[in-house]
């Protein structure tokens, strides 16, 4: 990118990045709600409950990249900023000639790492697909449309290579390129999804969405290839790249993997514990509604934080405590603004939205909406902490902060079932919300410590 080009200016503007990221978040949210809106109408209720379990399993699989993409971002970002500071970047390409310590095995970033990591994610997708196939064949996940479930799962899992491409581009100041591509992908997949309501076979719709995603993600990977100045041999040097990953990633991978597993369980386990506790659809639908609200908020917060990450990481690595605190206060302010707005919107429109979303299959109470609104406030602070500290490579610290949340999440349904069997769904929501507040307090202390270190 020539320094004075329009694209370079957009990449360098935090406001433009925030706008394009928020636009992408909006499209992603529309897609997520459209999935529920369409499939709750296209499938029988019992089949839709199985579909929700499929979505939860997909969340587990996608999250099982163990934070590798965050590790890559932290390592590549640190290296990119180091080269910027030393003036080694030249035209802006991070090619073999200017990788510096990353090419001499001294622990810096190596181009061969990318091929190894994409291979790992590919194997993860194949493994998840195999587990799902066995589960469908054995009747563990009951459905009359196994092909639809397999295609939807595979389509969702394409977010793994998409996430790695996104993080790699973001690390080398390629945020805008990815977000524009992903907006295009979302518009096309939303249209294909809504065609189901017009009579398009769901399997055909999902298959076409799969093709669109594969094409856009393939182009994004090509951008990574060109931006990093890679050659074909870098993608296939699994021995060299694997050795480098083994020598320099294991500590981060261990902490990040444990943290990721903890987060996966904490956010998704209630799907399975509720399914084990009752066959009543209402508790599952209420938690799915909360999950969608929390995911929506986390995506909004992530968009604003990621738009500020280039400046936050620069301030942190430069030891500029004043600037770091200023940027962190802005990020926290934006996150809490979104949380308050979402909570207020839920109180006004939550009952209507719940009924519309789930086609009147269940009703949600005012107290449920108040609890969800409160939980969103706590979640906002947690998200800022996780996104910033993950970008800085502080995975061991994040792991310690996540364990209380995991314990509360796993115990919420069993405790609610024991102490309030008639309204265990309400007590579960109370316990889950209290767990989020406790986790937010712990993360708040962590952020205060982070800013204090750069004072």
From TrEMBL:
Keywords: Membrane, Transmembrane, Transmembrane helix. It comes from Sphingobium fuliginis (strain ATCC 27551). The keyword Cytoplasm does not apply. The lineage of its organism: Bacteria, Pseudomonadati, Pseudomonadota, Alphaproteobacteria, Sphingomonadales. The chain crosses the membrane at residues 16-39, 51-74, 116-138, 144-164, 176-200, 206-224, 327-349, 369-390, 402-420, 426-447. This is Polysaccharide biosynthesis protein.
